[in-house]
Specification:
Methylamine Dehydrogenase, Chain H, four-stranded antiparallel β-sheet, Immunoglobulin-like, 463 residues, 1 helix, mainly beta
């Protein structure tokens, strides 16, 4: 080859290198030419974390590598900015579909994805049930059942052992169970039975063979029927709210002896127990607190006065370090020493397991209120609201099954909805029963359903 040809070849290769090398460098850093925008742009990526593991992933209908066996995760790169249709699927499960957006030089995450069984299996646990009251964890269930003689009795089913305990003697058909409440440790259960023009309150110790009363259930005798009874944080004590003419007295009582130990407030509109503290709202609008230990001294809380209305029901609750007040169907959050209205037409509200979200529901709608900032995708700020669904049929009381998923029933259908509002939220139908009453057992990740007098338990709903 002549020197002239070698020189030309060198310069050609040098020019090609100068043209190609930057392109290769940009390509390696995720830059691509966007033909729709007619410009060079940096790509983004998708990160998925899915339960169960080994899930197939399709992006705009094209299959990509699925999630791994151990953690159910995958990262897939080099997507131009814009919307993509995502489908995650696995045999035997309901597919997950969503349109997600890719941003330049960013990772779009979907880390709380759960695929639910397409054909959820149930087994019958107990028949002849007329009504049930599950504990907070779902591991214990009090239920009203019909005996072989046609009478009624109140029984307790411990799901951890499947052991059934009868709580009451046979009850007449005219008897009514007014109230059932488990203590926070689920070691005791309180229930009230109305019949023959009187209300009897009982406290049953679940694990003990006998209480200080000399039997497994203590009977609390009160001269005046209580308006409300809850467990105190102190052993063998309850807090009783009673109407005495024009006043409403809140007192602490030892149910093993029947002795009144302390009186808190004389015009109490609502109260709740939070750990070792008792909180209550007086009819004059002031909030009070007292530690339920020895030598307790009540303190008025530094909050604005709340305009309490006569002949109106109030419910006070404390969850995740926050205090909530319900006034009929209005909901308030005590924040910065003020009562901030957070909802109207509210039938029920529940804090998520992680304490970041508050579920607000009525007969036809479900909303989520953010109680604090959440920097995971989709990012939310405190005070943001997420609309979940609106239906023409009445919605049962929704329940959290994770901090990102709700379960509820509508008519004869049981549905699950995500709280991720990127794209439209479409609740999934997972089961069908006649007039179901549902509750969730978190420890086993199973759904329990009472339908037509039979209690059913599902297979494990998720890992």
């Amino acid at each position: 080859m002549q020197k002239r040809h070698r020189t030309i070849l060198f310069f050609v290769l040098a020019v090609l290198f100068l043209l190609i090398a930057p392109s290769l460098a940009l390509y390696s850093q995720g830059y691509r030419f966007d033909w729709n925008q007619r410009k060079v742009t940096q790509t983004g990526a998708f990160f998925f974390k899915v339960s169960p593991t080994r899930v197939s992933i399709f992006i705009d209908g094209e299959p990509i590598s699925g999630t791994d066996f151990f953690f159910g995760t995958t990262l897939t790169r080099n997507f131009l900015p814009g919307p993509y249709h995502i489908r995650l699927e696995k045999e035997g499960y309901i597919s997950w579909e969503r349109t997600l957006e890719i941003q330049e030089n960013a990772v779009t995450e979907a880390k709380n994805v759960i695929l639910f069984p397409a054909d959820l299996k149930f087994q019958a646990l107990q028949e002849g049930i007329e009504k049930m009251w599950p504990s907070a964890s779902g591991s214990k269930i009090v239920f009203l059942e019909q005996t072989s003689q046609g009478a009624l009795q109140l029984s307790l089913l411990d799901r951890s052992t499947n052991r059934k305990t009868v709580l009451t003697a046979p009850l007449s058909r005219s008897s009514e169970i007014l109230h059932v409440l488990f203590d926070p440790q689920e070691e005791r259960v309180l229930f009230q039975v109305a019949g023959q023009e009187q209300i009897n309150t009982f406290i049953h110790h679940i694990s003990a063979s006998a209480t200080l009363c000399g039997q497994r259930a203590c009977s609390l005798s009160l001269a005046v029927a209580p308006k409300e009874v809850v467990f105190s944080s102190s052993p063998n004590r309850v807090l009783v709210l009673r109407n005495l003419g024009t006043i409403q007295i809140l007192q602490e009582t030892d149910y093993t002896t029947g002795r009144d130990l302390a009186y808190w407030g004389t015009h109490v509109a609502a109260f709740t127990v939070s750990g070792q503290n008792l909180l209550w709202l007086e009819r004059e609008g002031t909030m009070w607190s007292v530690n339920l230990g020895p030598q307790a001294s009540p303190q008025m809380m530094q909050t604005a006065k709340f305009p309490v209305r006569q002949e109106t029901s109030y419910i006070l609750s404390a969850e995740a370090g926050r205090i909530f007040l319900r006034e009929a169907e209005k909901a308030y959050l005590i924040k910065n020493q003020e009562f901030q209205e957070i909802g109207n037409g509210v039938r029920d509200m529940r804090v998520s397991p992680d304490g970041r979200k508050l579920l607000l529901s009525n007969n036809s709608e479900i909303w989520i209120l953010m109680l604090q900032d959440d920097d995971s995708q989709p990012r939310k700020r405190e005070g943001d609201r997420i609309f979940i669904t609106r239906l023409s049929e009445p919605i049962s009381l929704p329940l959290w099954i994770t901090s990102s998923h709700l379960i509820f029933s509508v008519g004869n259908t049981i549905k699950i909805a995500e709280t991720d509002d990127r794209d439209r939220i479409t609740p999934l139908e997972i089961a069908s029963f006649v007039n179901p009453q549902i509750f969730w057992r978190d420890g086993e990740r199973t759904l329990h359903v009472l339908s037509e007098g039979t209690l059913y338990a599902s297979e494990r709903l998720m890992n």
